[in-house]
Amino acid sequence: MSAPENSDALRHLTLAPEAQRQLFLEARTANTFTGEPVTEEQIRAVYELVKYAPTSMNQQPMRIVLVRSPEARDRLVPHMTGRNQEKTAKAPLVAVLAADLDFHEELPRLVPFMENPQNVFAEPGPREASARFNTALQVGYFILGVRAAGLAAGPMIGFDHAAVSKEFFGDGRHQAVCVVNIGRPGPDAWMGRLPRLPYEEVVTTV
């Protein structure tokens, strides 16, 4: 792969070039995978790394269901849309990532220096918004963790969110936000690198 256009800027990073390539520059959203299995040890390693991702008030609303059995896969695939059905059916491992809308119940042990931190999120509306935002942060780090394990991730939001939430959680407090296919990239796993917006169009100094 050719060097990125901003290769000169990257020299200011302390992250090793090999890690830059593995996590960002050469990493892609995979559409096909080999048949090599993804082990429980690999996923545990991913979680043990990414659980340190930053979130608001150390809230940790993301919940993960690993879809391994054929029966569970059969329950998930019909709720995926379009080409996501075939990709999900063939991936070595699929993770359903959801937001726990009642994450505040865990805050007393996650923020032990505060008195009654759960009261900050007593109102359902702001609590759900916070759960979704911080789960999105955790999803991003989860994808990086998959890449750090030498695997490829295929994150998707093209699915019936209400149906998947009901199928794999069913308690009303968890809402699926993303489905991620995980494994070693297979043949023609990705298309060409799509354009990115340049720094000058994104960053403003005031």
How would you sum up this structure, described in words?
- This protein starts with 6 loop residues before the first helix and ends with a helix.
- The protein has a single domain (33-187), classed as 3-Layer(aba) Sandwich (NADH Oxidase).
- Helices cover 38% and strands 14% of the residues.
- The chain is an alpha+beta fold and 206 residues long.
- The mean pLDDT is 95.
- It has nine helices and four strands.
- The first-level CATH class is given as Alpha Beta
For the largest beta sheet, what order do the strands appear in spatially?
1-2-4-3
Arithmetic mean of pLDDT: 95
- Point out poorly predicted stretches: none
> What is the rounded distance between the termini?
36 Å
CATH architecture: 3-Layer(aba) Sandwich
- As a percent range, the share of helical residues equals 25-40%
Portion of residues in beta strands equals 5-15%
Q: How many strands, which pairing sense, and closed or not: the largest β-sheet?
A: 4 strands, antiparallel
By CATH, the superfamily comes out as NADH Oxidase
Number of domains: 1
What would the principal axes of the Cα set say about the shape? globular
Tally of DSSP helical segments: 9
Order of helices and strands: HHHEHHEHHEHEH
What's the Cα radius of gyration?
19 Å
Sheet/helix structural class: alpha+beta
Briefly note the CATH topology name.
NADH Oxidase
What is the strand tally? Answer: 4
